[in-house]
């Protein structure tokens, strides 16, 4: 089995939500802007609770925000 990684669509969802800023999203979910930046760049996997809070902000299901994919190791 290859390495798995959490991917996300937060940037696209922010854009589609009247171009919500990272700061605005951070305030809505109770984290810092730096945390949102790290999650968007796939540098930091969110806790399950935070993942649900992000999905709730956009009123979408968790799998519309995050996916768990196997990386190509070639």
Characterize the structure shown.
With 74 residues, the protein is an alpha+beta fold. It is built from five helices and two strands, in the order E-H-H-H-H-H-E. The longest helix has 11 residues, at 48-58. The two termini are 13 Å apart. The mean pLDDT is 93.
What characteristics describe this protein?
globular; 74 residues; single chain; two-stranded antiparallel sheet; alpha+beta; 51% helix; 5 helices
Short description:
This protein has 74 residues and is of the alpha+beta class. The protein has helices at residues 10-16, 22-29, 33-40, 48-58, 62-65, and strands spanning 4-8, 66-70.
Give the % helix.
Answer: 40-55%
- By DSSP (H or I, 4+ residues per run), the number of helices equals 5
Major beta sheet, strand line-up: 1-2
Overall 3D geometry?
A: globular
As a percent range, the share of strand residues is 5-15%
Evaluate the radius of gyration.
12 Å
What is the tally of beta strands? 2
Mean pLDDT: 93
Content-based structural category: alpha+beta
Distance between the termini: 13 Å
Largest sheet: 2 strands, antiparallel
List the secondary-structure elements in sequence, H or E: EHHHHHE
Q: State the assembly state of the protein chains.
A: single chain
Low-confidence stretches: none
How do the helices and strands line up, and which of them pair or pack?
Blueprint: E1 4-8, H1 10-16, H2 22-29, H3 33-40, H4 48-58, H5 62-65, E2 66-70
Antiparallel strand pairs: 1-2
Helix pairs in contact: 2-3
